[in-house]
């Protein structure tokens, strides 16, 4: 009977995966990593490979950075892949699509063992820079994300070669497919790229003042809120120990846990993340398109040259965030009495969700499907883009949401005001049921606002998925 039940569970999960796969296009990505400059690159690779069935990894390039200027370490990446190989057979019991370890190994490439702009120019091609061009030239119209965890000179050389060897029309076509997210500036080729390719899609907290960057929120201690999921004890229990070979290679924190992970977090399909819209907010933070004020740029501790931006970039945005808390009596949730207003809130507001998601996937390395937790599926009973009239009421409905493990579900509807043209507060009645009612504000012109549905299970660890609803209000 148990065998029959297990077969039915696997069939249902596989069916749901097929349906989900039909509606979500995987984001393509090439990773540039200065692995061994800091243990956090190894940490980020452990997480990345656990999502390798949901992100289309097209290349992994070992590079230098300001912290490791004459050395690259591709073999360190291969050792993590060897650990992944040992848990691959268990991972595919939980979700389909995990690539074989040998496929991932074939994607590991070398950049030049030189610092920054010393590796950019005629005759300075590398295995990594040529690989970026090769993937760009493939017959695939999806954008190609370059997730930069260290120096960016390998990409700079690719761009240099494209400019020198392609027609202007072809160069434009290739560059328009690129999407870059760099963890601040870790060599002097980042500012060169931004100055010389003014139309390139580029996300960065510029300079080397890491303490002011959005990405640092992944490991920042935020006073007045829960920081448990980035504690060393939580990491030891949920990631490192008793979680198989991948957990065993996840190193202790030296500077900050997983400082590079935000460069790919927003590529994970979770119902909230829309990689093409950094201004909408996602697990990797929120960014707006503008030219930063150089007079406010602080100098950090690295040798990277700090220079004024000559163009607009995708960079730090600010959220005014008030967390919801569990309520012991009455309505199950209540708003905190403390609010936060800064760029870091755009990222850490989702931190417990993405840390729990990581912990669940670490469980998949060793546990059976029946033992582990799996994310709920958030389902709307109406379109995700709706037009209503000024002052009109509307009922939101997520009653068909479900959990593959049969867990009880919690719901939360909230207005993401910072990403809406309409900043007026929206009240939901109630905000924590599968159905909620709201009334559109009175408007004089068309306005658009974003409603986020957050669906969380009550499994261990608690897992969350989202749906984003665009509401257009017309007079």
Task: Sum this structure up briefly.
This protein is of the alpha/beta class and 475 residues long.
In DSSP terms (H or I, runs of 4 or more residues), the helix count works out at: 13
Q: Please give the CATH architecture of the largest domain.
A: Alpha-Beta Complex
Low-pLDDT runs of 5+ residues are: 1-22
Structural class: alpha/beta
Helix content: 25-40%
Describe the largest sheet: 6 strands, parallel
Strand content: 15-25%
Q: How far is the first residue's CA from the last residue's CA?
A: 60 Å
Strand order of the largest sheet: 3-2-1-4-5-6
CATH topology of the largest domain: Inosine-uridine Nucleoside N-ribohydrolase, Chain A
Give the CATH H-level superfamily of the largest domain.
Ribonucleoside hydrolase-like
Q: Categorize the overall geometry.
A: globular
Question: What is the total number of structural domains?
Answer: 2
